[in-house]
Amino acid sequence: MSLVLSGQGEKTSPILKLSRKYSAYLCYPLAVCGIIWLLLLPMQSCFSRNAYFSENAMMPGQVKSKFGTIKHVAATSMVDAALEAERAKGSNETVSGMRATALHDVFEKIGLESEIQRFTFDEVRGIGRTEGRNVHGILRAPRSDAVETLLVAASWTTSDGNTNINAVRLMAGLAKFFSEQTYWAKDVVFVVTDSGERGIEAWLKAYHGVSTAAPIYVRGGIIQAALSLELPPAAKYAGLGVFFEGKSGELPNLDFVNIVQRIAQIERIPAYLHGMQDPPAHESSLATRYMHSAHLLLRQVRSQAIGVTVGVHAPFLRYRIDALTISGIVPPRDPVALQSKNDGNSRHPLVALEPEMLAQATVRALGRTIESTMRSLNNLLEHFHQSFFFYILPANRRYISIGDYIPAAGLMVASLLVQAMHLWWMQGSDDMRSSDPRTRIERMNKYYSFLRRTLPNGFGIILRIHALGALLLVIPFIVPQAVLTHSTSTAYVFTMALASISMVLHVSDIYWAPKNSGLVDWRQLKALVEVYVAVTLACLSVMNFSLAVVMFGISGLPLLLTRMYNYTTRAHRVANLALLLATSPICILALSRTALLGLSPLDFTSSSFRVFLEDFHHFSNLMYPLLCLVYWPVNLLCMVVTLIP
Length: 645
Prior knowledge:
Elements: H1 2-5, H2 14-40, E1 49-50, H3 70-75, H4 78-88, H5 95-110, E2 113-124, E3 127-139, E4 148-155, H6 165-178, E5 187-193, H7 196-207, E6 222-230, E7 239-243, H8 254-266, E8 271-273, H9 286-306, H10 314-318, E9 322-329, H11 335-343, H12 360-378, E10 391-395, E11 398-401, H13 402-426, H14 440-478, H15 486-512, H16 522-543, H17 545-561, H18 570-582, H19 585-597, H20 608-619, H21 623-643
Parallel strand pairs: 4-5, 4-6, 6-9, 7-8
Antiparallel strand pairs: 1-11, 2-3, 3-5, 7-9, 10-11
Helix pairs in contact: 2-13, 4-5, 6-12, 8-12, 9-17, 13-16, 13-17, 14-15, 14-16, 14-21, 15-21, 16-17, 16-21, 17-21, 18-21
């Protein structure tokens, strides 16, 4: 109550008096400080530290790797032989079914307990039903009772649509090698899917009993960690890319990332975060290193905020399974990669997935890297817990902990709260803010009368706009034909945008009428919206810092700049509306086509809105509900604040 009445001249604490005096000047410096804090994160001398191992039991690289004999390398060709035998049968089975059967036979020949899972999934709820096949084989640990499990996963295709046959071949060689060893204290599961992340999600649901639509019966213990392989066609690789982000910003334990990078360095096939090699410290300038770190951080923000991931590790993170993907970096002029790209579509569908094999030295280095990684994971006595789960990585072998980057989000949230506090104190007429003690009772009566008159209208506007956002959220699930294709999805978004603008104009027109003047106060409305956005960003910054930063940039910052003072001219309103239209969901969704799908912003045949909807349907990605319930309504409410008198 002291906070509420302090703007009306009531006796308050010195802190509130000081806050009231300077709140109008603090909000923008706080936002600028938050942005500057973000810009300092790529500077390795400011916040980042050298990575280290917190879990000493893993002992990475402390054993001699044995993978790579002629027998183990030859085992990688078992997949090709099985695929050729399956093709020679001339059955009417689909390519997916033939590959699954061939790999199932390979696993059984090696001695694994194998099973084929047949499942179906919808691209969007009720739309685009597709069938898929998952194949998994389990190597039972000879030294335990199948309580814990390690997992190696791969898809038949890479994230960019290329063949991933090299990963499946290597998996067969590793399965053969692992089956000959006696030191395993955990089961080892090998999973191959033909549907990417959706296939792994279907497998995980069946493995954990979440869904019984496509059950599996050959199971192991609790999955402790998972390693995804993505090896595009090539004769050799220049290095490995490490991808670790989840669909909603989940991250594996930092020790897992450090293990892979350390072991790859020992095996002389270096692993780089997102495939980006650090510039040499002694040959590059400070500006070059800063731009490289900034580029790497922006790629992490893109992956965590939008949900674009490489590999099939992301679904595991939703189940609290530490997982990451290692992807081969193809040299620019690799002959096998060029040949596979040029004539891969001119052969039989099964043969088209079979480019030339990797060089034996590359197979040996990759196999030993995975062998050492799995042996380090095999040494774990309990789940990953000692190192960080919240971090950002500005460079290879360096990290920034949550305690160093979260103040940036705190400053941004504080800027919204300080401005909301100032606007709340300044609402109403000037005579309600007098400090004359003789008019105290009259002033309080006016103030309470003002609140009773304006608060219901302010909340009514907020609820109406959010009801439109909720409609945008639920219509695709009630009427899935609205997003049947990318084109219909784009048309649906534009229709909702027109409906939104119509509602904004209608609401603003109501309160421009002389009889309704004074029924709503723009300061009060903006303060309420700022408190709502600040609380949302504060909660989001702990779960997904990258998404919180993006939401502040497209929602919080325009709100902060909306109607910075009481506009008196039409030109001010037009300029403010132009800024809001430039940061509106339609413009941002058009631009995200380039960032997300690699398409032109003017290409309306593909909809990023539909991509967000698919990720929400399959992986509970937060981007779609935040778009409908926070970003879209707040942008409309900013327009209302600009237009009302």
